[in-house]
């Protein structure tokens, strides 16, 4: 049998994949999504608070291309390290193949040493036929395994892309939740300040009304026990009208205060409900991310099994004494 060397591009019975790593998802789409999320948050929180949120979202959108470029650099470095490792493994495999070929040649020579020419021809013909049949069968299996590996690689890349999108969406939702929490805390602080101010105003008015009531009691006491003084009817009527006007103003102020308190309570409830809805959506996205991670791990395990099967096929071919 002639001595042949395996081509350096063959590894584990199939051509080594030298394609570059898939590019990361385009950052403009992520930036546009972040800008849209910031706009929605600004519209929900009001015109006075929308400008800071929009500026923060714009800064986050500008940071997206840097993060994407770092991920691409990491992927390229991992691919280069994998290629170097595969090249070192190819050299070791070539040495092992040469040893197996020499061993097969020695065995064949020892088997045919005591045969005559006819027996040698018959033996070699049967051996060649068997090896050719087995080689064709291994080639068909190798093609099927190669197609399956390519399909698994495509599915893995697709799952990885979906996982990156899910992680990006999760980060956006977490950022939105933080912004909503800040807005809620700000509204609570404003509500506390408003309550303190209203209580101070009420205390001031209570003091004024207490003083006024004391004066009225004194006047009533003077009426009940007059000291021989002339009562001015017009002045008393004017005083009565002014006192009634003050009572009406007090009631109006109290109604206005209750309406303001009710409005603030409704705003707090609305923000809490909105925060709860966003939190549930974020939890759903986290669950989806976990499922995608499980699928990626399952695909990795399937790929490892396929590589083990291909390695077993290569060992069978080497034992048969044929180059893969």
From TrEMBL:
Residues 20-29 have a biased composition (Pro residues). InterPro entries: Taxilin_fam. Residues 1-72, 139-161 are annotated as: Disordered. Residues 30-58 have a biased composition (Low complexity). Keywords: Coiled coil. It holds the Pfam family Taxilin. Residues 265-309 form a coiled coil. Belongs to the taxilin family. This is Alpha-taxilin.
């Amino acid at each position: 049998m002639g001595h042949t060397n395996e081509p350096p591009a063959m590894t584990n019975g199939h051509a080594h994949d030298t394609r570059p790593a898939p590019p990361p998802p385009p950052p403009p789409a992520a930036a546009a999504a972040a800008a849209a999320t910031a706009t929605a948050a600004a519209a929900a929180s009001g015109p006075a608070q929308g400008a800071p949120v929009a500026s923060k979202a714009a800064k986050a959108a500008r940071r997206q291309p840097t993060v994407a470029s770092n991920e691409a650099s990491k992927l390229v470095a991992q691919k280069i390290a994998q290629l170097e490792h595969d090249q070192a493994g190819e050299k070791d495999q070539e040495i092992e193949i040469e040893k197996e070929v020499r061993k097969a040649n020695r065995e064949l020579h020892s088997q045919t040493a005591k045969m005559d020419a006819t027996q040698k021809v018959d033996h070699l013909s049967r051996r060649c036929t068997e090896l050719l049949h087995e080689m064709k069968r291994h080639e068909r299996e190798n093609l099927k395994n190669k197609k399956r590996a390519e399909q698994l690689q495509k599915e893995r890349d697709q799952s990885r892309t979906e996982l990156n999108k899910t992680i990006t969406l999760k980060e956006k939702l977490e950022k939105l939740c933080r912004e909503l929490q800040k807005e809620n805390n700000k509204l609570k602080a404003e509500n506390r300040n408003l309550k303190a101010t209203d209580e101070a105003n009420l205390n001031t008015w209570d003091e004024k009304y207490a003083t006024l009531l004391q004066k009225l009691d004194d006047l009533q006491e003077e009426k009940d026990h007059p000291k021989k003084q002339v009562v001015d009817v017009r002045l008393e009527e004017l005083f009565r009208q002014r006192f009634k006007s003050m009572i009406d103003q007090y009631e109006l102020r109290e109604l206005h205060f209750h309406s303001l308190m009710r409005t603030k309570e409704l705003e707090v409830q609305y923000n809490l409900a909105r925060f709860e809805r966003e939190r549930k959506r974020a939890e759903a996205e986290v669950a989806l991310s976990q499922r995608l991670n499980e699928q990626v791990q399952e695909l990795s395990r399937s790929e490892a099994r396929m590589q083990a099967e291909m390695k077993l096929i290569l060992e069978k071919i080497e034992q048969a004494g044929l180059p893969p």
